[in-house]
Amino acid sequence: MPELPEVETIRRDLTRHVLGKTVKDVSVSHAKVVGGDIEAFAGALAGKRFQEIDRVGKLLIFSFGREQFLLVHLKMTGQLIYHAGEFIIAGGHSLTSTSEVYPAQSARGGRRRAGGHSQTDDPEVQPGKHTRIAIGFADGSKLFFHDMRLFGFMRMVNEAGRSKAISAFGIEPLTALFTLEKFAGVFRGRKTSVKAVLLNQSLIAGIGNIYADEICFSAGIRPSRQASRVTKAEALALYAATKQIIKRAIKERGTTFNTYVDGAGNKGNFVRFLQVYGRGGQPCRHCGKTLMKKRVAGRGTVFCLSCQK
DNA sequence: CCTTGTGTTCTCCG
DNA sequence: CCGGAGAACACAAG
Question: Which single residue has its CA nearest the C1' atom of nucleotide C6?
Fold first, then answer.
């Protein structure tokens, strides 16, 4: 599940690789992943030059000047992978034209292994049965959007569309506006759980199920605790944990639990540092007691009854 | 059945 | 009866 650290890792990877490149051709497998109209999307994107890549929460924003933007959301299983070189088919010969291997409206075309440097198994097949969008650049390199579940999307929007998308997000961790004052403020007066607040993108941008559980563990607070009952000291603990865990996760290039890969198709390393996520029934790394798993805020949630109050 | 991010819809309460 | 908060549902595929 790409959350803030994963999306930020991809943003940095792609900033290095696709900035300044011009879109030559665009292929799309399903209309719904580009907002319903493949022709309109491909037409709007063709010929555009990538000028800047920003991120708000888990949303990527590619800029083409002041009036045209590409919004990309990976949702649960989306991947955005850049390929510099040519494609090597199982048989051995290379391809240079996207349309030859990946006609619009058809995601089929067999499994073709990419040129060598990837570490994961399924995700780097280029293009594969889960390839939804292929963007070919003038220099022959390509950007692939994969998504097993058809939740993720790309959209071309104008400045009004960009502003609207950004305004839906709450405070952004790791920016100057992410102050203890504002952070503590989002918990104040809320009857819902601490976890629901952490997951609410309109309050705090970028936290998903993995980091919400990790933040709660680090702060020693049960995810089910009522937000309004969080004390000042606990708000500080949650605030510090949020900043520290997100920073560290970015440094480790994100968490690969199931399907996440970075802009080059490689896994993230933060799994090694997970204290609770995915560890229900296993011993707490701090006290040794069995970690509890239950549903909080509609999500699978793992915590330690003894370390978290 | 489970997994989860988010948009939409439903329900409750004052 | 309105508005807002929060919960529940829908979506998708393995």
Answer: A192
The structure tokens listed for A1 are 């599940």
Q: What is the pLDDT of residue A105?
A: 34
Which residue, among A132, A7, A116, A103, has the nearest Cα to A59 in the 3D structure? A7
Q: Supply φ then ψ for residue A232, to 5 degrees.
A: -60, -45
A71 SS3 class: strand
Residue among A126, A157, A146, A132 nearest A44 (CA): A157
Per-residue CB contacts under 7 A with strand C, chain A residues 90-149:
148-149
Q: Which nucleotide is at minimal CA–C1' distance from A77?
A: B4
Which stretches within chain A are classed as H helix?
Answer: 4-18, 38-45, 98-101, 159-167, 180-185, 194-199, 209-219, 232-251
Cα torsion A290, A295, A301, A305: sign: negative
Q: What per-residue confidence (pLDDT) applies to A1?
A: 86
Q: Give strand letter and number of the nucleotide nearest A150 (CA to C1').
A: C12
Residues in chain A with pLDDT < 50? 88-125
| pLDDT at residue A233, as a whole number | 96
The three-class DSSP label of residue A184 is: helix
Tell me the whole-structure pTM to 2 decimals.
0.88
The predicted pLDDT at position A127 comes to 75
> Which residues of A form the catalytic set?
2-3, 58, 299
Tokens of A16: 């290095």
CB A10 within 8 A of CB A263: yes
Take residue A125 and report the two structure tokens written for it: 């097949």
Could you check: is the Cβ of residue A192 within 7 Å of any atom of nucleic acid strand C?
yes
CA angle (A308 as vertex; A302, A309 as ends), nearest 5:
125
Query: What are A41-53's pLDDT values in tens digits?
Result: 999 999 999 999 9
